[in-house]
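Task 17 of the worksheet. Students: predict the tertiary structure of the chain below and write it out as structure tokens. Keep your answer in the requested format; marks are given for formatting as well as content.
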Amino acid sequence: MQLNRASAASAPPSGAQGHPVRQVWFDGRPAGDGRRDVPEEVPVEMVFPPVPFAVMMLTPRDLEDFAYGFSFTEGVIGVGSDIHKVTIETLAEGMRLEVTLASDKLARHLGRRRAMAGRTGCGLCGIEDLSQLPQAANVNTSCGEPLARAAIKRALVQLESRQPLNAVTHAVHAAALADADGELLLVREDVGRHNALDKLIGAALRAGLEPGDGFVLISSRASYEMVEKTAKFGARALVAISAPTSLAIARAAHYGIGLMAVARHDGALVFAAPTMFS
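Model answer:
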């Protein structure tokens, strides 16, 4: 159990808050006072003016990246230039992201009928029948050589030092984009695993980066929606530190993208498209 006993003048990093705590021990040792940094979590309303779209629980950093990534994975936009402006507003009850779309995208979006208020990122909330299940259109299964084990290990090792918020809070997820050699190109963090991946995808869209021969690495479990977002992004493989769900495996197999999980420095398990890995 880690306490931060630094002075009050020592500010926590962006996305974290320092809170006073009392350390208690179950073996009879005396209690002690200290401080613990915890991740911020606030309700963030997504608005495509003039219509509200969703309320998400987010860590309030890299919000513009989230606006782009969430809009993309929800099918509201197809490319980054479909967004003209993102306005971030702080309110008493939370935050608001106003995403100004190109006129044709706004018209298309307003024609969609989907109830999203209070969504938690489950990937299916608001869908009315099974025919509306998302279908990724950008799946990349053809380019590049199989991903080498050394590249996977390199990405895993790098990720440990590329999570500044998790280093102090031990309570957030990370999503990273790695190239075919395992070099991490981008990393984003959030309290929600879906949000971290949306932030990563948004940052890539804004930077003009495509997954190419590389892969997506996540610190969380590989659930259905994480596979869907990865496939829509156009990545050919998803590597997860935790385990996958059965539907995640089925969807990865459906798309033909590689799914590696329970990834550690000394090995991992391949659940789908084994030819993606050497």
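Marker's comment: The chain has three domains: 1-39, 42-132, 149-276. Confidence is low (pLDDT under 50) at residues 5-9, 113-121, 126-130.
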